[in-house]
Amino acid sequence: MYSLLIFAALVSLFPFYWMFVMATQPNHVINQTPPALLPGKELVTNFQNVLANIDFFGAMWNSFVVSTAVTVGSLFLCSLAGFAFAKLKFKGKNVLFVLILVTMMIPPQLGLIPTYYIITKLGWLSDLRAIIVPGLINAFGIFWMRQYIKEAIPDELIEAARIDGCSTFRIYWNIVTPAILPAFATLGIIVFMNVWNDFLWPLVVLQDQSTHTLQVALRALNDSYSRDYGMILSGTFWATVPLIIVFLLFNKAFISSLTQGAVKS
Amino acid sequence: MLPKPETSPTTNIRKKKMSQSVKDNITGYIFVSPFFILFSIFGLFPMIFSFYLAFFKWNGLGPMTFAGLDNFRIIFADALFWKSIYNTVMIGLLGTVPQLIVAFLLAYALNSQVVKFRNTFRVAIFMPYVTSIVAVAILFSIVFNNQSFGLVNSIIGLFGYDPIVFTQSEWGAKIAIASMIFWRWIGYNTIIYLAGMQSISNELYEAAKMDGANLFQQLRYITIPVLKPFILFTVFMGTIGSLQVFTEPLIFFNGNLRPEGITVVAYLYRDAFESNFFGTASATAIVLFVLIMIFSLINLLFTNRVGRSKKRGASA
Amino acid sequence: MKKWWKQAAVGVGLMTMLAGCSDGESASTPKDGKVVLDMWVFGTTGYDELAKAYMEENPDVQIKVQSTEMGDHHNNLFTALSAGKGAPDIAMIEVGEIERYRDAKDRFTNLNDLGAKDLQANYLDWVWNVGSSSDGEFVYGLPTDIGPTAMYYRKDVVEAAGYPTDPAELASTLATWADYTKFAEEVKAKTGKPVVDNAELIFNAKRDQASEHYFNRDNELIVEENAEIRAAYDYTAELIQKGTVGNMPLWTPEWGQGMADGSYATLLGPAWMQGVVKGNAPDAAGNWLVTTMPEGAGNWGGSYLTIPKESEYSEEAYEFISWLLTPDNQLNSFKDMGLFPSTPETYEKEEFKSYTDEYFGGINTAQVFADAAAQVVDVYKGKNYLLVQGEIMMALDNVLNSGGDPDKEWNDAMDRIKQRLERE
């Protein structure tokens, strides 16, 4: 079991380590074959080059705002809808749910131009709302929350709360949300990382440099005719570090809420 | 004055239930409406637009001209289109099936109480999901390099074989792309399985152990049944995800998509954003949409049957 | 748990606050009567510095220069132009990309209407023509820099092959492509190295000397009947089959490493490749030299500055770009950023004539490329140029890596091209 885990961990970690190695090397070393496996001396220089080229911390702040907003917003909307689909009885529920599943099946690449058109109509070009608001649509999140709430919350509990006179929203807020914290942690990590790493859409709508998210800003490091991979990977590496921190933070919340649940049951 | 007849407790409850169902209806709609409102603005309109486009020729800038079913005729007559479907399915199978099995094993190992440093391992295994696609691209271009110094080719070379030109090898290209998918998503699926496994209380296993169930039986009668929704979920998402694979082949071919590894979405992307043939690209998107529906249905039918037979097996 | 929700609430509050704040900063609103020009460029142009100089002279104009990665830049511009909103006042378009806008005259300001006709004489004819419609009536953009091609070569490899290493001597020894074939065989026999890094550059070099390429000026596909293109293809295939073409695709690590190690004898590249060579092979100073390539030159790269139709300040924008691209300022861009001028007048300037580059053996590389610029053939490319190019490259790749038969691969490529063009 250990050998499996150690092997998997090494394979998983290596590219990350290697990104760090390349972030410490001058460009011509990166081209070398076989590639360098030990860190070089350019760690500071490469990052200074990044800072000279882009507003790294400004972009990081934008990324943070966008990712947090989308994460919090979609956790709320997804759990609310997931709860409705899992526990409430309303007409057309199944049809609506299937519809949500169907929306996951649409290849998103083609929607670029019409969606851009809508954003221009809303006047949201170079505005973080252009990322946040469409980002709240998360069919996958609703699906995930519905499955989780269905399994995690017994119907009797809801019935009991109703008899006590709780409104449906109160039931959601006071009973459902505390019980699905692990699902929040998991979905939250997934959403946060996806938004943080996304560049296809932000690239198109965030035209003004002051609104760039990290991934958009990092792409500006790719010069058209020559590439300084040391600098690019330095930017990429430091852009990933906050993600790891977020993961570690949520990871703990994830575990403690799980053990809590176990103690209770 | 006649005394007011006391309402019987039964009618009272019924009334309450009636109003409750009305309330349920309303709150149900309110709770799901944010999604549908947002979706109709940012999802439905673009979708209808591309459906409409499939029947026109359009280069993104000029006027649209009606083409009837011509876009469909063109792509159906294109051998590369069929090849791209075949590639997508093959890459999907290669990238997903082994991945889910390994993810299950990893999650099982991570869930085991005997293993130390579980948290460290969990973080490590999740790392690929966090790593930027730029780093993945550069890394894999070295692992699967066409030259003899590429990592895989060096290993092959040790056994005295000639280096493989991965970008032009029928299976080499597919395996390379599939392994990118494998690597990037394994941590994600492991975490999902782990979340499922941690919802199973230890007492259940203890009880099973006392009943003399071996490891395999525990897996089969406790872990897998509880994990069924999670497995369904990953299979479902894996199917949809692999039918939409796009970034990996684009990276692998460095933009010059070749028939050995072009996927449907990459095919669509090339038409739309390299050549600005939005008509055929939209037609491809519709075909892909239908394909995803079919695969999802097969998926559902298959998993439902598996679930049912298992239940029958368990009750027998 | 409570803490968690508190943090989340703070996050939501923050985002609404911020979203509200960023509202005011919408682009190109005149501030205190100033005209604000948004300008999109890619790569390192140094135009922001020149813009500062311009703003000092013209205090009522404010120019916001924004640089994006080349591919992203063009995709964003296309999306904005397609949706009809969001394009800047001035947009830089690369020479290969300008082809896709041939039919989209309604999205651009005709610079002839703003007086571009008067400037035409300043620029090289072929450069000017690429930025205009076939009849010359509509001018999409003013040329910025160009990328005339020449032959970079490794002194050590050429020497080992028994050829002269002096630029002029080598050029006269390799005056024709037949000479180059012989040279390729010698290089292979004496050093075991390929003569060229990959099939693409040798094909492009010969292709660029043809008077017509894949489409004629009526935009009809002529590649199949075009003997010159077929000759370029056959020549490349022949060199491949002789084992003298390398397998180091552009921009890959092995390509860069090959530059440093001298894994190939020649690199048939444009003026801006000088920076790439220096970057990839910092230790090879003096080992790389430049001279003219056999039978003429081609062009790879360079851009145009256009004014999208939706700009409200097309006249102010035109004022600025016509100033930015004068021969004097092109000399500045050349000195600062290595952008090769599209104005032949610049080539006559003293600073240009006395230019030398220590890295490239102390020769006047600028003169080599200026001579090349004069030899470039004026050719029409057409909006589906890259599609055709891609399929021919795939054919050559198959010959190079999978031992494909050149004739069969050519025919397959022609079939694929026709199949894809049906979608238009």
Set down the secondary structure blueprint.
The complex is a heterotrimer of chains A (265), B (316) and C (424).
Chain A: H1 2-22, H2 27-30, H3 43-53, H4 56-87, H5 93-103, H6 112-122, H7 129-135, H8 139-152, H9 155-163, H10 168-179, H11 181-197, H12 200-205, H13 214-219, H14 229-264
Chain B: H1 9-53, E1 56-57, E2 65-66, H2 70-76, H3 79-111, H4 118-130, H5 133-143, H6 151-158, H7 170-197, H8 202-210, H9 215-243, H10 247-252, H11 264-274, H12 278-315
Antiparallel strand pairs in B: 1-2
Helix pairs in contact in B: 1-12, 2-12, 3-7, 3-9, 4-7, 7-9, 9-12, 11-12
Chain C: H1 2-21, E1 35-42, H2 47-57, E2 61-68, H3 70-83, E3 90-94, H4 125-130, E4 141-154, H5 155-160, H6 167-173, H7 177-191, H8 199-207, H9 227-241, H10 253-261, E5 266-270, H11 273-280, E6 288-291, E7 299-306, H12 314-324, H13 327-337, E8 340-341, H14 344-347, H15 350-353, H16 365-375, H17 385-402, H18 406-421
Parallel strand pairs in C: 1-2, 1-3
Antiparallel strand pairs in C: 3-7, 4-5, 4-6, 4-7, 4-8
Helix pairs in contact in C: 8-9, 9-17, 17-18
N-to-C span of chain A: 29 Å
Helical amount of chain B: over 70%
CATH fold-level name of the largest domain in chain B: MetI-like fold
Residue-averaged pLDDT of chain A: 83
What value does the average pLDDT of chain B take? 82
Portion of residues in helices of chain A? over 70%
Number of helices of chain B: 12
As laid out across the biggest beta sheet of chain B, the strand order is 1-2
Number of domains of chain B: 2
Quote the beta fraction of chain B: under 5%
CATH top level label of the largest domain in chain B: Mainly Alpha
User: Sheet with the most strands of chain A?
Assistant: none
Number of beta strands of chain A: 0
**Beta-strand segment tally of chain B:** 2
Shape descriptor of chain B reads flat
Assembly of the depicted chains: heterotrimer
State the secondary-structure class of chain A.
Answer: mainly alpha
- Gap between N and C termini of chain B: 66 Å
Summed up:
With 265 residues, chain A is mainly α.
Give an overview in words:
Chain A has 265 residues and is mostly helical. Chain A contains 14 helices and no strands. The longest helix of chain A has 36 residues, at 229-264. The model of chain A is unreliable at 257-265 (pLDDT under 50). With 316 residues, chain B is an all-alpha fold. Chain B has 2 domains: 21-70, no CATH class; 72-310, MetI-like fold, CATH 1.10.3720. Chain B has helices at residues 9-53, 70-76, 79-111, 118-130, 133-143, 151-158, 170-197, 202-210, 215-243, 247-252, 264-274, 278-315, and strands at residues 56-57, 65-66. In chain B, a hairpin with a 7-residue loop joins strand 1 and strand 2 (65-66). In chain B, helix 1 runs antiparallel to helix 12 and helix 3 runs parallel beside helix 7. Chain C has 424 residues and is α+β, with helices and mostly antiparallel strands. Chain C has 2 domains: 35-146 and 301-354, 3-Layer(aba) Sandwich (D-Maltodextrin-Binding Protein, domain 2); 149-300 and 366-422, 3-Layer(aba) Sandwich (D-Maltodextrin-Binding Protein, domain 2), CATH 3.40.190.10. Chain C has helices at residues 2-21, 47-57, 70-83, 125-130, 155-160, 167-173, 177-191, 199-207, 227-241, 253-261, 273-280, 314-324, 327-337, 344-347, 350-353, 365-375, 385-402, 406-421; strands at 35-42, 61-68, 90-94, 141-154, 266-270, 288-291, 299-306, 340-341. In chain C, helix 8 (199-207) packs antiparallel against helix 9 (227-241) and helix 9 runs parallel beside helix 17 (385-402). The longest helix of chain C is centred in the N-terminal third of the chain and has 20 residues, at 2-21. Chain C is globular. The N and C termini of chain C lie far apart (58 Å). Classes of the chains: A mainly alpha (265), B mainly alpha (316), C alpha+beta (424). Chains in contact: A-B, A-C, B-C. The interface between A and B is large, with 90 and 89 residues. Chain B: Residues 85-299 form the ABC transmembrane type-1 domain. Chain B: It comes from Mangrovibacillus cuniculi. Chain B: Keywords: Cell membrane, Membrane, Transmembrane, Transmembrane helix, Transport.
